[in-house]
Design brief:
By secondary structure, the chain is mostly helical. The chain has a domain of about 40 residues. About 60% of the residues lie in helices and about 0% in strands. The protein contains 2 helices and no strands. Helix 1 packs antiparallel against helix 2. The chain is elongated, with a radius of gyration of 17 Å.
Length: about 90
């Protein structure tokens, strides 16, 4: 893999963080909709549950270093450098 410009890595990481925040908000809204659909005995509960799973998988697959592709794991707010390649992310 060819090294990426440090500013480009920071820009890609900022985009990644904003996407992760958007996915988290969407999952929160879908979680509330799922709970409401369970109480309402709606047929939408299964579809909402599947959407939550798909969003969770999507989020985990995208949460990687823009430079080396290493998965960040559960680290989110305090991530300054990649644990594998050490590239500066912020």
């Amino acid at each position: 893999m060819e090294p990426i410009d440090p500013e480009s890595v920071k820009t890609e990481f900022a985009k990644l963080v904003s996407t992760q925040k958007l996915v988290a908000i969407l999952m929160l809204v879908l979680g509330f909709a799922f709970i409401l659909s369970l109480f309402a005995a709606s047929d939408l509960a299964i579809l909402i549950f599947i959407a939550l799973i798909v969003l969770g998988v999507y989020s985990n697959l995208r949460w990687r270093c823009p430079e080396c592709g290493q998965w960040f794991g559960r680290r989110f707010f305090f991530l300054e450098n990649c644990p594998r390649c050490g590239v500066e992310l912020r």
